[in-house]
Amino acid sequence: MIEGLRVRELPSRLHSRGYTVDLWKAGEVPPSSASARIHVVFPGCVEAWWVRESTPERIVCLRGMIKLVACDRRDGSATRDEVTEIYLGEYRFREVEVPPGVLRGWKAVGHEPALVLRCAEAVEEGRRLSPEEAAVPYDWEIVMR
To answer: pTM for the complete prediction?
Structure first.
């Protein structure tokens, strides 16, 4: 696992009207959320590679499923060049916190669009890297393990 990358399981409860997912409780709320965006990702589509240099991101998949992939490109990191993949979404609600300087991307897996919530603690647009610039040794096809 990449140093500083955090994965938190989100409790969910099924009931007669649907289900409820607890995003944040007291003590888990981000110190500030300067920006929040919803992304709709069509099945099979990949959005990669993005990096924020100064602020962490918190990512939750609210509907559908995504495969989130991160690659550590930080100088001096003990996990430099390590790649981590994490599945999250309606079958396993999780919040993933991506530290600054770590590249990330995601792919909607399954047959439905994925609805992804992304929050940042400071205003920073982030930077999109071309596949050549990112040079991440990763194949986006699903690998069953």
So the answer is: 0.89
